[in-house]
Specification:
The structure holds two protein chains of two kinds. Helix content of chain A is about 20%, strand content about 50%. In chain A, strands 1, 2, 3, 4, 5, 6, 7, 8, 9, 10, 11, 12 and 13 form a 13-stranded parallel sheet that branches. The longest helix of chain A has 25 residues. The model of chain A has no long low-confidence stretch (mean pLDDT about 85). In chain B, the strands form two sheets. In chain B, strands 1, 2, 3, 4, 5, 6, 8, 9, 13 and 16 form a ten-stranded mixed sheet that branches. In chain B, strands 12-11-10-7-14-15 form a six-stranded antiparallel sheet, with no helix packed on it. The radius of gyration of chain B is 19 Å and the shape is globular. The chains are: A alpha/beta, B alpha+beta. Chains A and B meet through strand 1 and strand 2 of A and strand 9 and strand 12 of B. Strand 2 of chain A pairs antiparallel with strand 9 of chain B.
């Protein structure tokens, strides 16, 4: 789901890191992978991976391609592909993502919507649509 | 035609044999030209401008890292129209193995071997940093936060840094900083048009290392504004007081580099 990357692998190709003792205010836009271990207020937008550490406190809207979240997030989260919420995460806001993993212990208060962004969900959608069509066809044949 | 700027320290220590050797080699290679002993007076930019108008198209600094920083700040005071007149390139012949980190990063061989690099004239467009529209830097600037410091980056967001942190802003990473960069897997280059801002927290360093978590803050920026700092160290040589705006001047100088450059 995460291209078999663990946290250390993600850190090998990182564009920006917000360390534990740094506070960011404003629009934090990047194209690559971001690691947040500190505080952030405003918005985060990246075309890459977002890794939020367990000690991070984020009051912001988040947009990313993929994300693994372990800290406190107050704001909407929009992830194109996989969103992984770890057991230490507290999320206060709505989520929109392609695929979702929530670990035991995570707190989530908000609405959750799934987009057709990820290949996995597209595949599931297609197969369910096919199943629906075939079941409708079978019913029609039975009626005849 | 080449114009040679000699650092004054070459005349205070015993470098005469090395200088003689270099001058002979330059003559053999057909690279001889007028030479000037560099000083920080207002006459220097005028002198350089004169030579450029006569036909010099390459300014070669003979000295060390400090000589390059001084030369860049002198050359920046030359009329930009004159500098572009002959597409002026900057070269270097490093003297002495200490204080020559810039040469190592640019792949320039030391002393007499540096003449061959000049002869090959492999050019690379290098970025420069500009502080308060006044002081230029090639390698890095750094400062210690003795109080809370704020850095506004590219007009988009603000970094608020706690007391006790060390901040380095990197254009060309020299050896000491390069080790940190390699360890943290940061892409850093003096030709990408951006600085790497590295904030190292003095207090939680070892604790975070044990936890294998990022102990640094690393962001990239084209221009930024610093508030709360009284002075910063520039290229480990100069001090800039009350720094305010710092911007990256992309591809500002054509530098003669070696093939073994570190970027």
């Amino acid at each position: 789901m995460f291209n078999k990357q663990n946290d250390n692998d993600i850190l090998k190709d990182v564009e920006a890191v917000v360390g534990p003792n740094t506070h960011v205010k404003g629009k934090f836009n990047c194209t690559g992978n971001i690691v947040v271990e500190g505080e952030l207020n405003g918005s985060i937008k990246t075309g890459g991976f977002l890794l939020v550490g367990a000690q991070a406190k984020i009051t912001a809207t988040i947009e990313a391609n993929e994300a693994k979240i372990g800290g406190i997030i107050d704001g909407g989260i929009k992830i194109k592909n996989v969103l992984h919420i770890t057991g230490s995460a507290i999320i206060l806001g709505d989520i929109e993502c392609g695929a979702l993993i929530i670990e035991e212990g995570a707190q989530f208060n908000g609405k959750c919507g799934m987009t057709s962004g990820s290949k996995e969900t597209k595949g599931i959608k297609k197969s369910t649509e096919k199943q629906k069509k075939s079941s409708v066809g079978e019913e029609k044949e039975k009626k005849k | 035609m080449h114009l040679y700027l000699y650092d004054s320290f070459l005349y205070t220590r015993n470098f005469s044999k090395i200088i003689d050797g270099i001058e002979t080699r330059l003559t053999d290679l057909g690279l001889n030209g007028p030479s000037v002993v560099m000083d920080l007076s207002n006459k220097m930019p005028i002198l350089i401008e004169k030579e450029l108008k006569i036909g010099a198209n390459t300014i070669v600094v003979i000295g060390n890292d400090h000589s390059i920083t001084n030369a860049i700040n002198i050359i920046s005071r030359v009329n930009p129209n004159t500098l572009t007149l002959n597409d002026t390139a900057i070269g270097m012949i490093p003297i002495g193995k200490n204080d020559n980190e810039i040469a190592k990063m640019l792949g320039i061989d030391f002393e007499i071997n540096g003449c061959e690099i000049l002869a090959k004239r492999r050019l690379e467009k290098i970025d420069l940093g500009l502080i308060n529209n006044n002081i230029h830097f090639l390698t890095n600037i750094n400062f210690y936060c003795d109080k809370e410091v704020s850095i506004e980056i590219d007009g988009d967001y603000e970094l608020i840094i706690n007391t006790g942190a060390n901040v380095s802003i990197i254009n060309l990473a020299t050896e000491g900083i390069r080790d940190v960069i390699m360890k943290e897997k940061i892409n850093s280059s003096p030709v990408d048009g951006v600085f790497e801002i590295i904030i190292k927290d003095a207090f939680n360093h070892s604790f975070n290392w044990l936890k294998k978590k990022p102990r640094l803050t690393i962001v990239k920026a084209k221009k930024f504004k610093i508030t709360g700092v009284d002075f910063i160290n520039v290229d480990n040589l100069l001090k800039a007081e009350k720094p305010s705006t710092i911007k990256n001047l992309r591809s500002k100088i054509d530098f003669i580099v070696g093939k073994n450059r570190g970027f």
